[in-house]
Structure formats: structure tokens, C-alpha cells
User: What shape does this take?
Amino acid sequence: MDVIETTRGVIQRSKEYVRNTPWRTDYEAEIARILFDLDKPCELAVVGQVKAGKSSFINALLGEELAIVDVTEATATINYFRYGLVKDKSRPIKVIWNDGREEWQTREFLDSLQGNTQEVLERAAKIDHLEYFIPNEEILGNITIVDTPGTDSVVKEHSNRLADY
Assistant: This one.
């Protein structure tokens, strides 16, 4: 039996135990979420100081220039790099808005999130995260890589986004 199936068994037994306790309403939903997440790829967040090379590292790892790199702070959103294919290559980036809406967007939209103007910061603040789908099963088959804004950012909104993540 592999580790995931062993873990699933332990969680199922916990679920059965909790079902007959006074804590049922407190823990049933959380146990169900854990069981659901058990089959998802591991999430690896790349975190570090501003301009430390987090996005460059991700690009080198993936062998593609996907994560935005600039001479100034460039990462304003939480960015997930997942295994998969996009249906429309002209709209390769999935935007998950704070209100739960999902929308496929262009690279031009991504470029509109760069910079530190008030307009850019307000636009980025409405986004929960971005998702990039890459057909690289060798690297992303069992892991999702997350690019984050840097720590010690001079842009308060970037630091807040990282703290919220």
C-alpha cells in the first residue's frame, strides 16, 4: 500500500470517529476537504526577498519564460504553474478573481498587471491568483509550483498579498 492510500485510510477512520462525537459539525467539513486535497499535486511555493530571483528560478526550472521578470518588482500576484494544456493559446492565463469568477486572459492582460501605479495595484488586488498550465508532466505531474511576491517589498500591497497567501 502506498503512502497516499495509507493516509486516506487514516483520514477515513478519523472521519468515522468524528461522526459520532460532539465535534462533528466542527470537523466534518475540514476532513472532507483534506480527503479532496489528498489527490491534488503537492504545492511548492517559492518565497524569498524581493529581486532574489524567484521568478527566474521558476523559469529555469520549467525551461520556459513564463514568470514575469523585470529590473523592478514584477510579481504582484500569486501565480500557480500547473500541469495541463490550454484550449486557446491566445488566452493562456487563467485568472481566478476574488469573487470566485474564472476567466482566461491574454499575455497583454498579464502585462497590464506590471508596475506599481495605483491603477495596476487596484487591478491586481481584485485577483486571487493566476494559473499557468504547462504540458510538462515530468516536472508538474505531481507538483504545482507557486511564484509569490517578494518579502520586504517596498510595495505594501505586494507584501500583503504574500502574507495573505
